[in-house]
Fold Inositol-1-monophosphatase.
Amino acid sequence: MTLQSAASELSLLEEAAREAGALARSLLLKPLEVQSKGAAGPVTNVDFAVDAFLEEKLLGARPDYGWLSEETPDQPIRRIGKARTFMIDPIDGTAAMIGRAPQWTISIGIVEGERAFAGAVYNPMTDEMFVGAISHGATLNGRPAHVTTTDKLEGARMIAQLFRFTPKRWPTPWPKMDVIERQSIAYRMALVAAGLGDAALLFGFKHEWDIAAGAALVEAAGGVVTDLWGEPLRFNQYPARAPGVALSGAALHPLLIERSRAFPDPRATP
């Protein structure tokens, strides 16, 4: 297959994300149909409708690409070994959407081999469009986006869940930080890519569809994305998940890893 240029991929991703956002907003004008996925949380008719739309839109444009989505049963034969694979969370932050909190996003990533290559994260309620690709740069609503150059944890804007930083959880307490909570994982990562936060930490296993777009955005914006022990993320695996994620600008990242590596590795739990 002939791989598309980064510019061509980003054009497709942005168009698909905006159209999916419009679809989601229109469906929210009617009562939601909410189901439970147990420990995986709620799912709605909006999640399924956006998933179906994106599959038709994206694979219609790139029929040779692989496919992985939260709302589509994973078929590894559809993705493993593909030169590029779409990784989709049709609604990232479904609980926020149900609660009408403007913290949910549409997350569309493209993985090339085992690396997150390009991504679009769109918040339909705030009309924030984050797009970026490796070696092509990142933008927020068309303007260049860059990670921050912060090199101290003290006073850093950490986009994460506040309870994760209680002193009893850590051998050495974290310094005082400005912890910003957002429900969508992709949104947290995109905000770091745009310099609207200095860092984000994601603890425990995270599905590849949650993080692929955000990982591409952060790298495209000049940042660093690894697991909590400083190892590179490898995508298009089976099972499709990563054991936690640390992301920030290059100067801050070693300070994150110095502390986050003390977190228990979920891979060590049977």
Summary: Residues 93 and 108 are 14 Å apart (CA to CA).
